């Protein structure tokens, strides 16, 4: 968004203030979603990115315990070459698992950029939904149908209009309420990785889940072998063996429970991959009982997930944008309202729509009104009495007062009125 030229009636001081407020920022700095960015917008996380540290803790700590207390006995029990590979393998596999976690959590999952204006229905082969009666949808929103029908592989699919992103969501796209973005091929929002799972990171998500399952089974198996070796050497029962190696018992219990959870998730996503479904579609549309328009056969579905090229991000978060003073002020106000827990969501949406609807010239008109009043204040030779014609110059229209309240400038007008009463 480019700044508009400043009108000539602005004073030099206010002109310098507005020109100073015009700022060149990067896209990630004015991003309206709830994402968190690192390394200057190179890494994109969800708002719950802190949960990734818990996930790392749950992966790394059992591996450290295994290497420190269990693996030492196993190295000598197996063949020399095989025993020496137990620890290096689990360390390398853990690093590989953490890299997959970072690739899943720290990349754009497939966010669709928001529109600044409502779209216009185009002749793209889509048709309006027959349920739409043409009613107006409210302030600041154009009269668009809430849904429209598109054809996917010969099947009629209904897509919805997103009021937040002001776009018709493409097929398989959904709006994540946590990240506040429309995500292409939206699967779900995973709290364990702190990110939406979509078209651009689903492959890494499945690889992370499956590799974590293998890691759990690896630790579980070798801990069981360690307990069995203790029982054979000491000629004792299971409970005495667990007493001699309590860490093995703890890891067996931990990995058994974790493997059931993560292993079940892996099997479920294998089923989704074979049938070309997403978690969202499976729970919402129940394609088991009706035709799935995206199913292209098991082999092609697998190829599409693991061997197809990952599309480039539709967002350049490091691109530079120039914001004028009004847009910069509206952005800061919207961010402030986002951080306020007392502000209801509906009020936030209406207020944000109002600020976006205010044009730059309205903002400049407010400044010109203040400048005109400021001119009277700065002139010490002005008489204390005014005629009826001068009074009209002092009065401010209700529209300007409403705009001033929107931009938080109402207190400036009150100060001006106090000065005017003093005259």
Which descriptors would you attach to this protein?
elongated; 15 helices; 53% helix; alpha+beta; 423 residues; disordered N terminus
Description:
This protein has 423 residues and is α+β, with helices and mostly antiparallel strands. 53% of the residues lie in helices and 10% in strands. It has 15 helices and 12 strands. It has helices at 12-21, 51-77, 80-84, 86-105, 202-234, 238-244, 246-275, 279-284, 298-306, 325-339, 345-357, 360-378, 388-394, 398-406, 410-422; strands spanning 23-26, 36-38, 43-45, 127-128, 147-152, 155-162, 167-168, 174-176, 181-183, 188-190, 195-197, 320-323. It has a 4-stranded antiparallel beta sheet, with no helix packed on it. A two-stranded antiparallel sheet has the order 1-12. The chain has a two-stranded antiparallel ribbon with strand order 2-3. Helix 4 (86-105) runs antiparallel to helix 5 (202-234) and helix 5 crosses helix 6 (238-244). The longest helix is centred in the middle third of the chain and has 33 residues, at 202-234. It is elongated, with a radius of gyration of 31 Å.
Write the layout of secondary structure elements.
Elements: H1 12-21, E1 23-26, E2 36-38, E3 43-45, H2 51-77, H3 80-84, H4 86-105, E4 127-128, E5 147-152, E6 155-162, E7 167-168, E8 174-176, E9 181-183, E10 188-190, E11 195-197, H5 202-234, H6 238-244, H7 246-275, H8 279-284, H9 298-306, E12 320-323, H10 325-339, H11 345-357, H12 360-378, H13 388-394, H14 398-406, H15 410-422
Helix pairs in contact: 2-4, 2-5, 4-5, 5-6, 5-7, 6-7, 10-11, 12-15
């Amino acid at each position: 968004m480019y700044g508009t030229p400043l009108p000539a009636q602005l004073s030099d001081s206010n002109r310098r203030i507005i020109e100073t407020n015009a700022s060149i920022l990067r896209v990630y700095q004015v991003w309206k979603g709830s994402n968190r960015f690192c390394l200057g917008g190179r890494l994109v996380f969800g708002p719950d990115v802190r949960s990734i540290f818990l996930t790392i803790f749950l992966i790394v700590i059992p591996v450290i315990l295994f290497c420190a207390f269990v693996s030492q006995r196993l190295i000598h029990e197996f063949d020399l070459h095989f025993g020496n590979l137990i620890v290096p393998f689990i360390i390398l596999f853990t690093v590989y698992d953490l890299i997959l976690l970072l690739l899943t959590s720290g990349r754009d999952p497939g966010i669709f950029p928001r529109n600044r204006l409502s779209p216009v229905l185009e002749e793209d082969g889509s048709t309006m939904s027959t349920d739409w009666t043409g009613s107006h949808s409210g302030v600041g929103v154009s009269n668009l149908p809430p849904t429209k029908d598109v054809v996917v592989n010969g099947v009629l699919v209904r897509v919805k209009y997103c009021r937040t992103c002001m776009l018709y969501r493409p097929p398989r796209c959904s709006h994540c309420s946590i990240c506040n973005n429309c995500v292409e091929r939206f699967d779900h929002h995973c709290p364990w990785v702190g990110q939406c799972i979509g078209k651009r990171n689903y492959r890494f998500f499945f690889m992370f889940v499956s590799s974590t399952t293998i890691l759990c089974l690896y630790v579980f198996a070798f801990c069981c072998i360690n307990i069995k070796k203790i029982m054979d050497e000491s000629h004792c029962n299971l409970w005495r063996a667990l007493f001699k190696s309590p860490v093995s018992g703890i890891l067996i219990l931990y990995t058994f429970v974790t493997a059931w959870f993560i292993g079940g998730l892996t099997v479920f996503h294998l089923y989704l991959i074979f049938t070309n479904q997403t978690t969202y579609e499976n729970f919402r549309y129940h394609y088991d009982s009706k035709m799935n328009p995206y199913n292209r056969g098991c082999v092609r579905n697998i190829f599409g997930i693991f061997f197809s090229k990952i599309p480039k991000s539709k967002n350049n978060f490091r691109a530079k944008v120039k914001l004028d003073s009004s847009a910069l002020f509206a952005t800061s106000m919207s961010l402030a309202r986002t951080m306020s827990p007392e502000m209801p969501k509906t009020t936030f949406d209406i207020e944000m729509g109002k600020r976006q609807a205010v044009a730059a010239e309205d903002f400049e008109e407010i400044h010109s009104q203040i400048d005109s009043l400021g001119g009277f204040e700065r002139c010490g030779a002005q008489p204390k009495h005014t005629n009826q014609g001068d009074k009209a110059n002092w009065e401010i229209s209700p529209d300007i007062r409403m705009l001033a309240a929107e931009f938080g400038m109402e207190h400036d007008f009150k100060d001006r009125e106090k000065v005017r009463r003093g005259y």
